[in-house]
Amino acid sequence: MSFETTNYRPTPLPDRREMSDAAMIEAARVHFDAMATRHSVREFCDRPVPREVIETAIATAGRAPSGANQQPWHFVAISDPDMKSRIRAAAEEEERAFYGGGAPDEWIAALEPIGTGASKPHLEVAPWLIVVFAQRWGTRSDGSRYKHYYVPESVGLATGFLIGALHLSGLSVLTHTPSPMKFLTELCDRPVAEKPVMILAVGHPAGDATVPAAALNKKPLEEILTVIGAQTETT
């Protein structure tokens, strides 16, 4: 997509949904109930996942809002066993350095209830890995660069869309952020303009999959919400 034409041209809203207050509340509750069943797992089974599911979920991610509509993201979906093995080997090398003294004690202590460690077998077992890249700048047809705005915020929004789409498709997702992760740029053959942000391991949970008990503790609504102004309650 080219962003060389910058003139503003309004167009009528192409999609509009009209719902009653009661229907909106019901829809919000249904969506919450569905998303409340999302859990990060580290044990996957080898059941294949159709490529179309991954492609459609990434297409959904591409519908996320972004700064200046520049869509500064790229996703690399990997099912090739050899590539997954190479990513695991490189990630575990970084993780061993992290857990072996590279991370502050406070950070390690914060991770202890989650049960993480340097071993990352899910990077090979999960049928798909999706590497999320943030595009720091764009390139015009003449080769000149233009700056992207609100890149971390935009990529975060798109990744949230992606995780939600994958979950609603019946899949489990584990976010993995090896540090540093520059090795992903080379392995995935991406340009220097793109910075790897995270790896998503995607697939069906193993029959004996577990989650950390601490991960089930979510902040209640009153701790994450402040309402300012009038509010209408519908019963």
TrEMBL record:
Pfam families: Nitroreductase. This is Dihydropteridine reductase. One of its GO terms (molecular function) is oxidoreductase activity. It comes from Limimaricola soesokkakensis. The lineage of its organism: Bacteria, Pseudomonadati, Pseudomonadota, Alphaproteobacteria, Rhodobacterales. It comes from the Bacteria. InterPro entries: Nitroreductase, Nitroreductase-like, Nitroreductase/BluB. Residues 36-204 form the Nitroreductase domain. Keywords: Flavoprotein, FMN, Oxidoreductase.
